[in-house]
Amino acid sequence: MLSQIDNSYEIGRLQQHEASRLASRVASAGSPSAGLFASALGASRRLVLLGRLGETQRFERLVATEAWSDAALELLRLDAPEWHLQRLCQDDGEWLCSLSRFRELPDWLDDGVEARHHDMALAIVGAVVELRARLAADNVLS
Question: Where along the chain do its domains lie?
């Protein structure tokens, strides 16, 4: 039993580290790229499994045609279906993407996730990656 707890802790720490590395790549990216989106897809165990089941074909088509914003929204839909895009707005040349589990809650009650980037698609991807990091941290702490 103790080895299962240790193993879960290590998996959570690894996922947290991978999400942090990917978040850094997204934040420093000048523009979207197929490689960055492939990394976002491959960094999620859920998405790797969905890919094996053929569920990521739409995402892959969107990336292939460089429909970055649609691909970012599809990434959110596939990776975190219980989360929703709460807000996507631009201020002073920077996009803010907010994700929430509960659409009806006001901002001040919500425990959502946010990311900022000068590129809209990367703001969305950044929020998805931030969400992964938070969920991985929650797994480590619980």
Answer: 2-141
